[in-house]
Amino acid sequence: MVEAVLFVMMALSALAGAVTVVVARNTVYSAMGLLATLFSVAVLYVVQLAHLVAAVQVIVYAGAVMTLFLFVIMLIGVDLSEDLDEHLPRQRLWVGGLAGLVVALAAIVTLSGEFVWVPAATAQTNPESTNGTVQAVAVPLFTEWVLAFEATALLLTIAAAGAIALAHFRRVRV
Amino acid sequence: MVAASWYMGLAAALFMIGALGMLLRRNALVMFMCIELMLNAVNLTLISAGRVLNDINGQVAVFFILVVAAAEVVVGLAIIVAIFRRRATASVDELSELRG
User: Fold this and answer.
1) Cβ-defined contact of A18 to B18 (cutoff 8 Å)
2) For residue B31, what are the domain limits?
C-alpha cells in the first residue's frame, strides 16, 4: 500500500519533470524539471530496495551532473531564444506521426495481454536477494564485473583529460 | 508490491518524452537533458527487472550506466562550451560545417 502511494506520487512528479524538460522555454526551468525527475526516480529506486544506486543517483546525478548543467547554462546565457522555423521539412509532422505510432503499438501490445514484461516474473520474488546494500552491490562489482569496473576507471580518466583538452580550445579566426 | 509492469510503463513514458524532446528541441543543452531522461528511464527498467528476477546484477548495470553517463556529460558539455565559444549559439541547426 505504501509502495503504491509512493509509486503514484513519484510517477506523477517524474512525468511532470520530464514534460517540463521538453516544453520549458527557459533552459533553467528544463534543468529544474530534470532535477525533479532524477529525485523522483531515486525515490523509486529506494522503494525497490536499490539503496546504493539511489544514493549514487542523488550524489552523482542530482549533485554533480546538474551542477555542471547549471554551470554551463549560466556560462552560455539563459536568454537564448530558440528559432521555431522548421529547417527539416515537416519535422513536427513526422515526429508526431512517429510518436503516435509508437504509443499506439505499445498500447496494443500492452492491452492485448499477450506480452509478458519480464518473462520470469511469475516466480516468487525474494526481496532479500536484491536488497541493494553497499555490500550486496559491491560483491558482484568487485568479483564478476571487476574488469568492467577497471574499464570505467580508464573511461573517467579519458573523459577528464578530454574535457581539459577541450577547455584549452584556442579561438580560431574564421 | 507494485507490479513490475507499472514501473516498465512509467519508464516507457519517460523514455518516450525524452525521445520526443530529442527530436523536437534545437537547443543542444535541452537535447542533452533529454538523453539523461532516456538513460534514467532505462535505469528504472533495469532496477525493476532485477527485482522481479531476484538478480542483483541489475543494480550493478545501473551503477555502470551512471558512470558512463557522468563521463558523457563531462565531454558533451565541454564540446557545447567549445562550440559556443566559437559560434555564440547553442542551436544545433546552426552547426552545418560538416554538411556535404
Assistant:
1) yes
2) 4-91
